């Protein structure tokens, strides 16, 4: 082999190595793996894995103990651990511990079933609520506890098309 061929082969191998080895984005361990990761990464086991708002990536930190955030909030790096609201698609109805967690615990419900629309987008501490789209003649198959909205994580929010008698219209589940 000539020097040129060896050089090309070497450059190719280096490119493959660097592209392959750096082609993933760090994700924090699942809570079931947190203890193992903390003790393999950090000598004292004091480990955090938090979202870095500056770089939009997750970072692992040793030497920082547990951080507790209020309801509806979690910890992020800015560059030090700082409380921040849950992402809009998630919520946290209880205090947040940075040990074993890197994001707010619950995903908000989706109002995607046929005839179902959002009644409220919820908050950082409450889930989204849904309702049947009465403007399109949808009504609840099983009436929810709250007549104005339904909680998909807690009750059946199924809707069906309700037929109205001739000359009558449906307004919020009632025929007039």
On the 0 to 100 scale, the average pLDDT is 85
Find the structural class using helix and strand composition. Answer: alpha+beta
Per DSSP, the total helix count is 2
How many angstroms does the end-to-end distance come to? 89 Å
Rg (CA only): 25 Å
Domain module count: 2
What shape does the CA trace take? elongated
State the order of secondary-structure elements, H for helix, E for strand.
HHEEEEEEEEEEEEEE
Which residue ranges are poorly predicted, with pLDDT under 50 across at least 5 consecutive positions? none
Estimated share of beta-strand residues: 25-35%
- Strand arrangement across the biggest beta sheet: 2-1-4-5
Question: What is the number of E strands?
Answer: 14
Could you give a short account of the major beta sheet?
Answer: 4 strands, mixed
- The portion of residues assigned to helices is 10-25%
Keywords: Signal
Provide a descriptive summary of the structure in words.
The chain is α+β, with helices and mostly antiparallel strands. The protein has 2 domains: 26-105, no CATH class; 116-175, no CATH class. The protein is 15% helix and 28% strand. It contains 2 helices and 14 strands; from the N terminus they run ααββββββββββββββ. A 4-stranded mixed β-sheet has the order 2-1-4-5. Strands 3-7 form a two-stranded antiparallel ribbon. It has a two-stranded antiparallel sheet with strand order 6-8. β4 and β5 form a beta hairpin. The model has no long low-confidence stretch (mean pLDDT 85). Keywords: Signal. Residues 1-23 form the signal peptide.
């Amino acid at each position: 082999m000539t020097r040129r061929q060896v050089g090309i082969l070497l450059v190719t191998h280096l490119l493959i190595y660097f592209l392959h080895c750096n082609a993933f984005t760090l994700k924090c361990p699942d809570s079931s793996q947190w203890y193992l990761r903390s003790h393999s990464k950090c000598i004292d086991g004091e480990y955090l894995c938090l979202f870095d708002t500056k770089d939009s990536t997750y970072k692992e930190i040793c030497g920082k103990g547990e951080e507790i955030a209020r309801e509806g909030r979690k910890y992020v790096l800015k560059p030090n651990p700082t409380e921040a609201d849950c992402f809009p698609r998630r919520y946290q109805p209880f205090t947040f511990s940075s040990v074993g967690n890197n994001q707010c615990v619950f995903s908000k419900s989706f109002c995607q079933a046929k005839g179902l629309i959002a009644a409220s987008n919820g908050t950082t501490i409450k889930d989204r609520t849904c309702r049947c789209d009465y403007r399109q003649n949808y009504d609840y198959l099983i009436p929810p506890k709250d007549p104005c909205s339904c909680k998909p994580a807690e009750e059946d929010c199924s809707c069906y098309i309700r037929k109205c008698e001739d000359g009558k219209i449906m307004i919020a589940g009632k025929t007039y």
